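Quick one, C-alpha cells below. Sequence please?
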C-alpha cells in the first residue's frame, strides 16, 4: 500500500504530540538530534511573532510537513524529528516539567537546546506561558503525511527535500518580506516580484552570502561560516506594525523619512546613490517589507559600482588580482574569472571591506580607502602559501580587522591604523608582483 486514505491532513501540534492519538517513535536509521540553540530559539520567536500578529488572528500557523511511517500501532518519524523534539521541549518547559522524558545532558545538542529554551522561556510570566502553551497546542499545525509503506515514505521525503531546486536563503527572505507587504496593493507586490525575478539567482546568492552576511558578522567581530537558511534572521528587519523599543522606532522612522526628505529637497539634496547609502546602512536594522526589496535593488547596483571603482582606480593596477569583473557594458552582469581563483578569497575580502567603507563614509576618500584596504586584504595572500575560507573568515572577523574599524570609526582616517600591517611574504619568490604592488601602495 502507499499513502492511506486521509493520510495527508492538517493536525494541530497538540494532536500530533498526543500519545493517545500518535505513538511516535524515532527509528534507528534517523540521524541524532542536531539543531543548534539559535535554531530552536528562532522557532520560539517565530511562533510568538505569529501569536502576537493581529492580522493572523484566527489563522493557523503552519510549521511545515511531518512524514510518518505507520508500523503496527506506532508511527515512525521519517521527516520532522528536529521540530517535533524541539516542540516537545518547549511544551515541557511551559508546563513547568523540569524532569523531561529525555536526558538533557549539557554536552549534547539536546541538552544545549534545552538549556537555551529554559532561559528564554523563564522570563515569561504565568499568563504568557499559559497563552503560549495554548497557542502552540491549538493554533500551530503541521501538514501530516502518513503511509504504511516505508519506501513510499522515503519517496515523499525525497520529493520534499531533494528533487528540483531547493529553496535558497534569499528565497525565504523574499517570502518573508512579501508577507510583510500585506497592506500594499497587489500591483506593488507584482512589481516587486517582477523586479526580484529579473535578477539571476547567482547574483542574489553572491550579494547575500559573499558580502552582506559577512559584513553583518565581521563588523561585529563574529565569524561568518557560511550563509544558510538558519541565518536569515539577520535580514528579517523591523516590523513597522510592532515596533516597541526606542531604537526600533528610530530606525523604522528613518526608513520612512529619508525618501520623503530626499524628494522634498530634490534640487540640492543628495543624489540617488547617497540616498541609498543613508537609508540602507549595513550595520543598522532595516524595516521589513518593501524597504527590503528596495535595499536589494540598491545593493546590487552598489556592488557593481564597487567592483568597477575598486579595481579600475589607481590606474587599474589592482585589476590583474580581481576575481569578479563587469562585462564590456559598465552596467552588465558580474563575471567571474576561474583562472584567478588563487585570489578568490582576498578579492572578496577587499570588495566587501570597500563596500562597507563606502556605505559608511561615501566616496570622497575612495582613493585612500582603495589603497589601504587593498593592502590589508591582499596581505593575507602574500603571507600565506594557501588561503582557505577559514583563513579569510579569521582575517575578516578579527577584532582589529578593517570591518571592526569601519564599524567603530567616527572618521575615515581610522583606517590609517592598518597601514602598519606586516606584509612580509611567506617565502622568497612568493607572489613577487603582488608584494611589489602592496609595497608601492604602502609608500604614500
Amino acid at each position: 500500500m502507499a499513502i492511506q486514505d486521509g493520510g495527508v491532513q492538517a493536525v494541530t501540534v497538540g494532536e500530533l504530540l498526543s500519545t493517545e492519538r500518535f505513538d511516535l517513535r524515532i527509528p534507528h536509521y534517523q540521524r541524532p538530534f542536531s539543531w543548534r540553540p539559535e535554531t530552536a530559539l528562532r522557532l520560539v520567536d517565530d511562533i510568538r511573532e505569529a501569536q502576537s500578529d493581529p492580522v493572523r488572528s484566527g489563522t493557523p500557523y503552519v510549521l511545515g510537513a511531518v512524514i510518518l511511517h505507520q508500523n503496527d500501532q506506532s508511527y515512525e518519524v521519517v521527516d520532522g524529528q528536529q521540530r517535533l523534539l524541539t516542540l516537545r521541549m518547549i511544551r515541557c518547559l511551559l508546563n513547568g516539567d523540569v524532569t523531561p522524558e529525555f536526558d538533557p545532558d549539557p554536552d549534547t545538542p539536546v541538552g544545549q537546546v534545552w538549556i537555551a529554551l529554559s532561559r528564554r522561556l523563564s522570563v515569561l510570566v504565568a499568563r504568557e506561558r499559559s497563552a503560549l502553551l495554548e497557542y502552540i497546542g491549538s493554533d500551530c499545525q503541521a501538514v501530516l503525511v502518513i503511509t504504511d509503506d516505508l519506501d513510499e515514505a522515503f519517496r515523499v521525503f525525497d520529493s520534499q527535500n531533494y528533487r528540483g531546486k531547493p529553496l535558497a536563503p534569499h528565497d525565504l527572505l523574499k517570502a518573508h518580506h512579501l508577507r510583510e507587504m500585506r497592506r500594499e496593493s497587489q500591483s506593488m507586490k507584482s512589481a516587486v516580484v517582477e523586479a526580484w525575478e529579473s535578477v539571476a539567482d547567482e547574483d542574489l546568492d553572491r550579494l547575500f552570502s559573499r558580502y552582506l552576511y559577512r559584513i553583518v558578522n565581521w563588523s561585529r567581530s563574529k565569524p561568518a561560516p557560511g550563509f544558510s537558511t538558519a541565518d536569515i534572521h539577520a535580514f528579517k528587519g523591523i516590523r513597522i506594525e510592532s515596533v516597541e523599543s526606542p531604537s526600533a522606532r528610530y530606525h523604522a522612522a528613518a526608513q520612512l523619512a529619508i525618501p520623503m526628505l530626499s524628494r522634498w529637497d530634490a534640487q540640492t539634496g543628495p543624489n540617488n546613490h547617497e540616498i541609498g547609502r543613508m537609508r540602507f546602512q549595513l550595520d543598522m536594522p532595516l524595516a521589513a517589507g518593501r524597504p527590503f526589496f528596495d535595499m536589494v535593488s540598491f545593493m546590487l547596483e552598489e556592488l557593481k559600482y564597487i567592483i568597477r571603482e575598486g579595481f579600475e582606480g589607481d590606474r587599474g593596477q589592482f585589476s590583474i588580482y580581481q576575481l569578479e569583473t563587469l562585462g564590456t557594458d559598465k552596467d552588465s552582469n558580474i563575471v567571474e574569472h576561474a583562472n584567478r581563483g588563487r585570489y578568490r578569497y582576498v578579492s572578496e575580502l577587499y570588495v566587501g571591506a570597500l563596500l562597507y567603507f563606502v556605505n559608511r563614509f561615501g566616496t570622497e576618500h575612495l582613493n585612500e580607502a582603495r589603497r589601504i584596504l587593498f593592502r590589508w586584504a591582499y596581505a593575507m595572500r602574500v603571507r600565506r602559501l594557501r588561503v582557505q575560507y577559514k583563513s579569510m573568515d579569521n582575517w575578516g572577523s578579527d577584532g582589529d580587522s578593517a570591518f571592526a574599524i569601519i564599524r567603530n570609526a567616527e572618521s575615515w582616517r581610522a583606517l590609517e591604523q592598518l597601514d602598519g600591517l606586516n606584509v612580509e611574504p611567506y617565502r622568497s619568490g612568493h607572489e613577487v608582483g603582488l608584494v611589489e604592488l602592496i609595497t608601492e601602495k604602502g609608500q604614500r
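The chain has a mean pLDDT of 85. The beta strands are 3-12, 24-25, 61-71, 74-79, 140-147, 324-326, 334-336.
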